[in-house]
Design goal:
Layout lengths: L1 E8 L5 E8 L2 H10 L3 E7 L6 H6 L7 H16 L4 H11 L3 H15 L4 H6 L7 H13 L2 H47 L4 H11 L3 H34 L3 H13 L4 H21 L4 H11 L3 H15 L5 H6 L5 H13 L2 H57 L1
Antiparallel strand pairs: 1-2, 1-3
Helix pairs in contact: 3-4, 3-8, 4-5, 7-8, 7-13, 8-10, 8-17, 10-17, 11-12, 12-13, 12-17, 13-14, 16-17
Length: 406
């Protein structure tokens, strides 16, 4: 018997760390699975290993499009009759990124030792998401692994394409914002103080406009406390990144996304589309509805939606229809729930769910493109307003002095 440290996840997505004594890694994986946990990483707890080092060990960042390409190639190889171990060998040797090749090699070694493919993937949570692992697990159990891999690759590719489009459209507005803020700060900190002596004389004779007074105060504050504010800003960003990784922080962020003006309905629409697509695909391949709901809850990308889908699974298990608990959550639009209700009655739920996903994605992609296009002129207006404030605050005393002399 040896001690093993592990990281696993519950059905609700919470991370669990611990250790146990077992004869080998395979026994630890089996025990965790029997306890209803999804093992993520299991390693021997020798003298050079502990849970703290386990949590800080990080895999080099691997892009989603490379993971999607590897999954699609694996589906093609398996569909062509190539054994799983040979397919993983081929992918590991031909991986475009060395880090991905190392991960695939470890997955291949684990599978060769008898570990199921989904459990082998689960040992690399920074590379393969919960959704990928869940769909692969369902595909392995339902004998449609090739199609599950293809669907997962398509899903990841679509998500990455959407992210790329948004990033590309926002690149110029973000550049404008950063450049505008830097120029404004430089003017306020280094240029405005050169007028301080002039403004002090003008203030003795008749006072200064409010805009000029505010600009001088802001310039002095940035000059004296600028470094402190910068350090505080960096600390706040660092704290926020850690906070949103916690279950409570992630929940607050996901809730805020749904309530965000203009973009909230788009986030909601994409969550609905992802859930419907994964659920429809699983039902089409014969996965039981309760299992399909559990997997599709991970596809939403939003904790609030995931909780609503899991709650609907509990109601379905007690004999209710799917449409009723989903409609009660008020997260799914009424027109979609009407289609789901009719589809359940006509026994073609999987087909309707896939149609809903296609239509919802197309509609919300158009809305997202339109909103992103509006960001650029809005950013120009904001930057113009800031520059105008600085210029007017500097010139107003001069204009008032000229009027007084005239």
């Amino acid at each position: 018997m040896a001690d093993f440290a592990y990281i696993a996840k519950t059905a609700g997505g919470e991370q669990v760390k611990g250790s146990m004594a077992a004869a080998g890694q395979r026994e630890v994986f089996a025990t965790l699975t029997q306890q209803g946990l999804f093992p993520m990483r299991v390693e021997a707890a020798d003298g050079q290993f502990n849970l703290k080092s386990l949590s800080w060990r990080r895999t080099p960042r691997i892009k989603s499009e490379q993971v999607a390409s590897s999954l699609a190639q694996l589906a093609d190889l398996l569909g062509s009759g190539v054994p799983l171990l040979d397919s993983l060998d081929i992918l590991a040797s031909q991986a475009a990124q060395p880090a991905l090749g190392e991960v695939l090699k470890k997955v291949r070694d684990d599978v060769a030792e008898g570990t199921p493919l989904d459990d082998a993937l689960a040992r690399h949570p920074r590379v393969f998401s919960d959704l990928v692992i869940s769909i692969v697990r369902a595909g392995s159990a339902g004998a449609f692994l090739e199609e599950a891999l293809e669907q997962t690759a398509d899903f990841l590719s679509t998500q990455e394409e959407l992210k790329s489009r948004v990033k590309g459209a926002l690149a110029y507005p973000i550049f404008l914002a950063v450049a505008g803020v830097i120029v404004t700060i430089v003017l306020i900190v280094f240029f405005v103080p050169k007028f301080a002596l002039l403004f002090a004389k003008l203030e003795k004779h008749g006072g200064l406009p409010f805009a000029t007074t505010a600009l001088l105060w802001l310039s002095g504050a940035l000059w004296r406390y600028g470094l402190v504010l910068l350090v505080a800003l960096v600390g706040l960003i660092s704290w926020w990144k850690r906070f949103i990784r916690t279950p409570h922080g992630r929940r607050l962020l996901d809730k805020a996304r749904l309530q965000f003006p203009l973009f909230g309905p788009i986030f909601q629409g994409f969550a609905v589309a992802r859930c419907c697509r994964v659920l429809g695909t699983l039902l089409k391949n014969g996965v039981p509805i309760l299992r399909a709901l559990s997997i599709s809850s991970d596809a939403t990308g939003n904790i609030i939606f995931a909780e609503a889908v899991r709650a609907s699974a509990e109601n379905v298990s007690s004999g209710d229809t799917l449409a009723e608990p989903l409609a009660a959550s008020k997260l799914f639009p009424p027109q979609i729930m009407a289609m789901v209700r009719i589809a359940e009655e006509s026994n073609n739920l999987e087909t309707v769910l896939l149609q809903i996903a296609d239509r919802s994605e197309r509609r919300h992609i158009r809305q997202l493109d339109m909103l992103v296009r509006l960001v650029e002129p809005a950013m120009l207006l904001v930057m113009g307003a800031l520059m105008m404030f600085v210029i007017l605050a500097l010139l107003l005393p001069v204009f008032e002095m000229g009027s007084a002399l005239g």
